[in-house]
Specification:
The chain is an all-alpha fold. It has helices spanning 7-33, 39-66, 99-117, 127-150, 154-158, 166-184, 200-219, 227-253, 259-273, 282-306, 314-332, 335-338, 348-379, 386-391, 393-398, and strands spanning 69-70, 74-75. A hairpin with a 3-residue loop joins β1 and β2 (74-75). It is globular and about 60 Å long.
Length: 402
């Protein structure tokens, strides 16, 4: 296949930059939700995640995901250190895009996913332990799952559909965040005194950057400037808007129309439409977004009721949204958009594959993350001291004030 020299490359270059913008978006979204004494820590960890994953991806990550398949489980080391990854030739999975650009685009996905996981560590993790965890998690959780789905692994062989990362990004990140939170324990004083967000406008700004960047996240996954890319952008915006309105309405019924709730609903809609963006139309996107907003809102309420301190709700927003979206592909996919039918169009097999795959990815991500966190905690400790937590991570870990 000849490499594209025009619009497809231009679009993926722009999409790569858009997805990168989501990383500071996550930082600002999370940073506004924590207490002021931990703001720098939250933003720093997202940039640190980006830096760590960028290096890991070049040396081994890309090869583990997109190298030649080994028994459906992982890629080989053919592209270690980007060996053979060319800026002028397409790769096996890059279509008409030069493989080096495809590598850079996929690197942003891995980095954003690790940044989302930070939710389960907010306000209490040691920076040194985070570094070790981030490198191991990307290698042992993200890379295998991405290979199963996008790199020719066993889920791909079964026909599992995930257009832009409902399972690869959102299920892995959300359920991993929950596992870490359960290992590391609640923040000191959680449930006893207020832990209100210190800067709601900062969180709203972060959400805006995420919404904007998501057009590259989903639209770029078409790997061309074409009809599926246009459809992906339209349904992405539609589901986000529907999710925002659904969560806003739900929170209004329970009290006040929360601004944080509204943007959380938008992100829930974005997470849910991510696996569907290449397979459904705008009308179905409304339904997917509304149900995402309501399901994720109820998941957050359940977490709070159970007293679990998955601090910034990656589990309830990304995890549950990702599960719903991945299952929704198997229900609503229509061949007129990208050649695949779901349950509503007579293909029950697609529903079973996607639902089963979602459950497996959920269990794998949670289980491996739990064990990783437990091992690191036993060896070097995940959590800062009680005094450091009281002072805040900005001062105790970075020697800086916001």
């Amino acid at each position: 296949m000849a490499v594209d020299t025009g619009s497809a490359i231009a679009w993926l270059l722009a999409s790569t930059a858009l997805v990168m913008l989501m990383i500071p978006g996550v930082g600002l979204f999370y940073g506004g939700l924590v207490r002021k004494k931990n703001f720098i820590s939250m933003v720093t960890m997202t940039f640190l995640a980006f830096s760590l994953v960028s290096i890991q991806w070049i040396f081994i990550g890309y090869s583990l995901v997109f190298g030649n398949d080994i028994y459906g489980v992982i890629g080989n080391f053919q592209s270690i250190g980007l060996s053979g990854v060319d800026m002028d030739l397409p790769g096996r999975f890059s279509g008409v895009i030069p493989e080096l650009l495809f590598m850079a685009y996929q690197m942003m996905f891995a980095a954003v996913t690790m940044a989302i996981v930070i939710s389960g560590m907010a306000e209490r993790v040691k920076l040194s332990s985070f570094i070790i965890f981030a490198l191991l998690w990307t290698t042992l959780v993200y890379d295998p799952v991405a290979h199963w789905v996008w790199g020719g692994g066993w889920l791909a062989a079964l026909g599992f559909l995930d257009f832009a990362g409902g399972a690869v990004v959102h299920i892995t990140a959300g359920f991993s965040a929950l596992a870490i939170a359960l290992v590391i324990g609640k923040r000191a004083g959680f449930g006893t005194y207020s832990m209100e967000p210190h800067n709601i406008p900062m969180t709203l700004l972060g959400a805006g950057l995420l919404w904007f960047g998501w057009f590259g996240f989903n639209g770029g996954s078409a790997l061309a400037a074409n009809g599926p890319a246009i459809n992906a952008i339209v349904v992405t915006n539609t589901a986000a808007a529907a999710g925002a309105l659904a969560w806003l309405a739900a929170s209004w019924v329970g009290g006040h129309p929360s601004s944080i709730g509204m943007v959380s609903g938008a992100i829930a809609g974005l997470g849910a439409i991510t696996p569907c963006a290449g397979f459904v139309g705008p009308q179905v996107a409304v339904l997917i977004g509304v149900l995402a907003g309501l399901l994720c809102y109820k998941a957050m309420e359940w977490r709070i009721k159970k007293g679990m301190d998955e601090s910034l709700d990656a589990w309830s927003v990304h995890g549950i949204g990702g599960v719903w979206g991945t299952v929704a592909v198997g229900i609503f996919a229509v061949a007129a958009i990208n050649g695949y039918n779901g349950l509503l169009y007579g293909n029950a097999g697609q529903f079973l594959v996607n639902a089963g795959g979602a459950v497996f990815v959920l269990a794998y991500s949670f289980g491996v993350s739990y064990v990783l966190a437990l091992v690191i905690d036993r060896i070097m400790g995940l959590r800062v001291s009680e005094e450091e937590e009281y002072v805040g991570l900005d001062l105790s870990q970075h020697g800086e004030r916001a």
